[in-house]
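Q: I'm writing up a methods section and want to include an example of the input and output format. Could you take the sequence below and give the corresponding predicted structure tokens, formatted cleanly so I can copy it straight into the document?
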Amino acid sequence: MATRIFLRPDWCKNIFLFGNLGAGKTTFLRALGKKIGINGIKSPTFLGIANYKIPGKKIFLAHADFFQKKVSAKFLPEILENLEKNFFAAEWSENFPKKFLPNNRIEIRISIPKKITEKNKFERTVEIIFFDSSKGDEKKIQEIIKKWQPPKHVFSHCVGVASVANFLAEKLEKAGIPLDRDLIIFGGILHDLVRICNFPELDFARFPEKITEKKKQKWQKIHQKFNKMHHSVAAAKILKAEKLFSLSEVVARHRNNSIFGDEMVAEEKCVFLADKYVLHDKIVDLKTRLQDSKKRHLGWESKKFLQFSKKIKQFEKDFWKMAQIKSGEISEKNPKISKNLENYWKKFWVKD
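A: Here is the clean output for your methods example:
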């Protein structure tokens, strides 16, 4: 959670905590604060808002507490300013006026057992909900697919990536890592939205579908417009124009070179790694995918390919350990993955 907020503050930097007295709201924020270099976070119940300098950042962590129930008109402007400018974390969010809740926020609801015993007194149930207006929704994703009309065989690959990515996300969640499942699914579905722009040539006779003249013209225009940029960059540009900023970053980082760049957050890791398990529309292991990449991308320098192979193998090893993935789980035989393959076709594919 801390890594996500720290690395991608533009996605969402406002946290609203809900929970009864003693649920552990301040304890949660202390732990989060330590992850981003802040020590000594205290409950600001009688202080209004406490500001903490974040090492390496120009902004602060603004810690508010609404235990006093009524948010005064005098206090409200300061809150709204912090919501806009700083990392913002609030306790007792039940008492914050709903009409002022930002569209982009993370709600964390902590509950304690109804009957406290010596055995369960430290047990907590934590529900994390991501509100992110820049990821879109199912209807918006369908509209984008209808507008850009990816070839059916390309979309089949995207469905495979989304299905595997969602499985990887489920494993991370079970391991206690919070993430936005919708953002991951949408990223998988749209990661190759304009993959056609990097096709060496548009040989429509090889496309495994009936193609109308209208589609040919559409794909030729896409090819001409974006053929000088990587398809991940082109798709990210399209999504940014739609104001889907977090989704655009997940899509942009699915390309191989991202492994040499800045640290990825959980949602980006899921889509990035899932793409390395889907060859065309078949789910394969990493070794098979790497062999195909080396064969198809002859422009790769052997040295760079070896560097990538080494990095991606370590990336996979670290991810599997973190998500507690077992050998053989990433397969079309896995009912969780196969079920998603069917569901995502029905949910997102827009017929002519």
